[in-house]
Specification:
The protein is an alpha/beta fold. The chain is 18% helix and 22% strand.
Length: 336
């Protein structure tokens, strides 16, 4: 009974956390699924028919290996993938390992979902380093905690649009009709926060709803960029009440962000690769796979001198039988 209660509380907490997550000013498609990833916020938003249905924390590319901004599409999925290590990383590791089979040491986690043109080397996947999520630390791909990655992969459909955006602020209203502002750091040094449009939207909304906003409070939030959501129209101590809705602040509007009207998407067959498929990508990991330690050679008997042994072949991990996977050839210069 205690386990059930704890599970219910945990699920309720997660649902509340998602409901209170600031929403970016980006128009989701009015029909079908739409993935939106906001780099500074380190969050993935999943919309269905124009409505927000799920929010996931993610780790995105570092400044040196940035996640590609722009419009993409969700591609093939590979459950329990095998990581085929590119030659550049094989050289860095210098342990003879060329592939990492499915399992707890695999930096791809239990699933890899292609995002965009394979030449870009983008994917959404699990990880063997859950503490790295959220963060700005990948080699370009989008990491999720492995349970989230599995849930996402089973929910999303191949061919769905995926937008990677870069918004350093979120301006939302809550169920109590209060105005909330969050500001984020600038990991890619884009310097693209339009504070003029943001202030215009704040003032327009406040005027339309008979509210007062202290401009010094806005200045402090934009300066500190803690990522925390702050109320601009509440008394001290008032908590946010979800669900949150974004204002179309990028245009200086006081109106809520509306879905982008689009015809229903054509039926697309979900593309699922065979289990164990090899994915050759530049997969960074915060938890390096330790090379196997060869057993110490047995002592030679004290007899006639023995000729020197030939050097041992580099260690190779056990690989699935050929029928368990099909090699999936990808460009070798991918970022992960």
């Amino acid at each position: 009974m205690k386990k059930i209660s704890f599970g219910f509380i945990a699920a309720s907490f997660c649902a509340a956390a998602a409901a209170n997550t600031p929403v970016p000013d980006h128009q989701p498609m009015s029909a079908g699924q739409h993935v939106v990833i906001n780099i500074p916020q380190q969050r993935l938003f999943l919309y269905t028919d124009g409505k927000l249905t799920k929010v996931y924390p993610v780790a995105v590319g570092k400044a040196a290996t940035q996640t590609n901004l722009g419009e993409h599409k969700i591609g093939a999925k590979a459950f329990n993938p095998t990581w085929h290590i590119p030659k550049s990383i094989q050289k860095e590791r210098n342990d003879g390992v060329k592939t990492v089979p499915p399992g707890p040491s695999n930096p791809l986690g239990p699933v890899f979902v292609r995002m965009g043109d394979p030449k870009l080397g983008l994917g959404i996947h699990g990880t063997n380093a859950p503490a790295s999520v959220p963060g700005v630390r990948s080699h370009g791909c989008v990491r999720m905690k492995s349970p989230d990655a599995l849930e996402f992969a089973k929910t999303i459909t191949s061919g769905s649009p995926a937008s990677v955006i870069y918004q350093m602020a979120a301006l939302n209203t809550d169920a109590n009709n209060n105005l909330w502002l969050a500001a984020y750091r600038d990991p890619y040094n884009q310097k693209n926060l339009n504070t003029e449009a943001l202030r215009k939207s704040i003032n327009a909304w406040a005027k339309a709803h008979g509210k007062t906003v202290n401009p010094k409070r806005v200045d402090a939030i934009l300066k500190n960029r803690t990522g925390q959501i702050n109320c601009l129209t509440c008394a001290k101590g008032v908590k946010v009440k979800g669900p949150l809705q974004s204002l179309a602040w990028n245009s200086g509007s006081a109106a809520h962000t509306k879905p982008k009207v689009a015809p229903p998407p054509a039926p697309v067959k979900d593309e699922v690769l065979p289990a164990g498929t090899e994915i050759e990508v530049d997969a960074g990991t915060d938890k390096p796979v330790a090379p196997a330690v060869p057993a110490a050679p047995a002592s030679a008997p004290a007899t006639a001198p023995q000729p020197p042994k030939a050097p041992e072949a580099p260690y190779q991990p056990a690989r699935p039988a050929p029928e368990q996977y099909q090699k999936y050839k990808e460009p070798t210069d991918m970022l992960f």
